[in-house]
Design goal:
Blueprint lengths: L7 E6 L3 H11 L16 E8 L3 H11 L4 E4 L2 H5 L4 E4 L3 H7 L10 E4 L6 H8 L6 E5 L10 E5 L3 H8 L3 E4 L3 H11 L2 H17 L4 H20 L4 H9 L6 H11 L2 H20 L1
Parallel strand pairs: 1-2, 1-4, 2-3, 4-5, 5-6, 7-8
Antiparallel strand pairs: 6-7
Helix pairs in contact: 1-2, 7-12, 8-9
Length: about 280
């Protein structure tokens, strides 16, 4: 499949938040890594091709990394031409309109970033029934080589490429991938929680900058503990180790009584139902 001496030429149709995060993550890799631009050990063929759909974001990538790493194509089919891997990073409605216009070849791999389109639907719309399609659910922190990307089905080349961006989990089925995908929708509520704490602190006369520094560092630190856990028992232990009758236990109790955690589960059920319905 690879054209450049075993290396993969990758092109992005769509240049939104997730696509640009992936490009930034790959471009920031050190020499000797899977995507290295500094020597011959990487598996990417440079430059990465991106579409001009979001001119500000595509121009920012070139400005940050240079034309040797990123090139902006005038049309979507210029992105597709010559690529081994074509990344579809479009909103669902735009993807429905765009995929039939792409001149994709059966031997090109498609990386599916479209939130509600299944891999089979991508093949159908693109007119390449035999193509290898891998769905990927990354989040913006991959730009900084942290966080997690979920793939389905497992494909070794994609595991290699995304492993340099953080943790990689290969879902057992597309249904399971949607469960992970629903889980990522707690990112927004998480940021809202940070914002709520920041606002509360500033109302207590704490300075804006000090409050922001505390909130970001505080949550980053406690998240590091959770990242070490390998099963549900470990996560439960983090809750159980709070001092009986202490302040943290009181906060858990009050939030539980207010139905906060039940509401999270209800929201996740609704998001999963929406994803499942859209995939049919």
């Amino acid at each position: 499949m690879a054209a450049g001496g075993g290396k993969l030429q990758v092109g992005f149709v769509g240049c939104g938040t997730i696509s640009t995060a992936i490009v930034r993550g790959w471009c920031r890799c050190r020499a000797g890594s899977a995507t290295s631009a500094g020597d011959e050990s990487g598996v990417l063929q440079w430059p990465i091709k991106v579409s001009q759909r979001n001119e500000a974001k595509s121009a920012a990538l070139v400005a940050e990394f240079g034309a040797k790493k990123v090139t902006v194509c005038g049309t979507n089919n210029e992105v597709v031409e010559g690529c081994d891997v074509v990344v579809i990073g479009l909103t669902p409605q735009v993807a429905l309109d765009t995929l039939p216009t792409l001149k994709l070849r059966p031997n090109q791999m498609i990386l599916n970033l479209v939130s509600t389109l299944s891999n089979d639907r991508i093949r159908e719309l693109a007119g390449v029934p035999g193509a290898v399609v891998v769905k990927c659910v990354p989040l913006p922190p991959v730009a900084l080589h942290v966080g997690v990307s979920v793939l389905y089905p497992r494909h070794e080349a994609m595991v290699t490429l995304f492993s340099v961006l953080g943790k990689v989990i290969c879902a057992e089925s597309e249904d399971h991938l949607r469960v992970f995908q629903a889980g990522t929708c707690l990112m927004g509520p998480f940021y809202q929680t940070l914002h709520t704490l920041h606002q509360w602190m500033t109302k207590q006369s704490v300075g804006d900058a000090d409050a922001a520094a505390f909130v970001g560092t505080f949550y980053s630190g406690i998240a590091a503990d959770s990242a070490k856990q390998t099963d549900g028992e470990g996560l439960s232990h983090l809750i159980a180790e709070q001092t009986p009758g202490g302040l943290n236990e009181e906060a858990i109790r009050r939030l539980s009584e207010a139905g906060c955690y039940e509401s999270e589960a209800t929201a996740l059920d609704a998001i999963l139902a929406r994803l499942t319905k859209a995939a049919l």
